[in-house]
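Dear colleague,

Thank you for sharing your sequence with our group. We've completed the structure prediction you requested, and as agreed, I am returning the results in plain text so they can be pasted directly into your records. Please verify that the sequence below matches your submission; if there's any discrepancy, let me know and we will rerun it promptly.
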Amino acid sequence: MLKVGLTGGVGSGKTTVSKIFTSLGVPVFYADDIAKKIMNEDTILKQEIINLFGKEAYTESLNRKHIADIVFNDAFKLEQLNALIHPRTIAAANKWMQQQTKPYVIKEAALMFEAGASTNLDYVIGVYAPQILRINRVMKRDKFTKEQVLERINNQIDENLKMKLCDFVIVNDEQQAVLPQVINLHKKFLSGIKFSN
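Please find the predicted structure tokens below.
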């Protein structure tokens, strides 16, 4: 079974691409969603997060706004938070992959390279969109200001560098159709044969 990563900067459209893979019958592990679940359910992790961010880190569940307001203005706090979450999410992904039986699986994660989560994968797909388009998408989707979006972009590795680290790139610039690009990769991965990009 091939293990394929899927990544891209905030607003690149990686979730849209992963949903196309899902519709083709490919199992997809959504690392960001699982991380949020772990942050709400792992009692040891919850206490570690409270120690780091104070009692306000949880109301009835994880207080994402409180934490985001801190980490997007404090790179060290973000690093500390990631050090708590990433190993648990990577372990959950590895366990999940062992349970799958399809020819290949997808692991979707925004911080694929930043978290060191690409090391046990066969290939990584990058989803690319121009920055201005990404900013506009996130402002519309999350009701963020341009400055808030740029804070998030600046906490991810440079998009051009990220794409160079990927084995394949899907362009999601609203000029090129995404579906044919996904189907082309789907056919390659279904072959199960290791191939050079």
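Summary note from our side: Residues 2-34+88-190 form a domain with the Rossmann fold fold (CATH 3.40.50.300).

Kind regards,
the structure core
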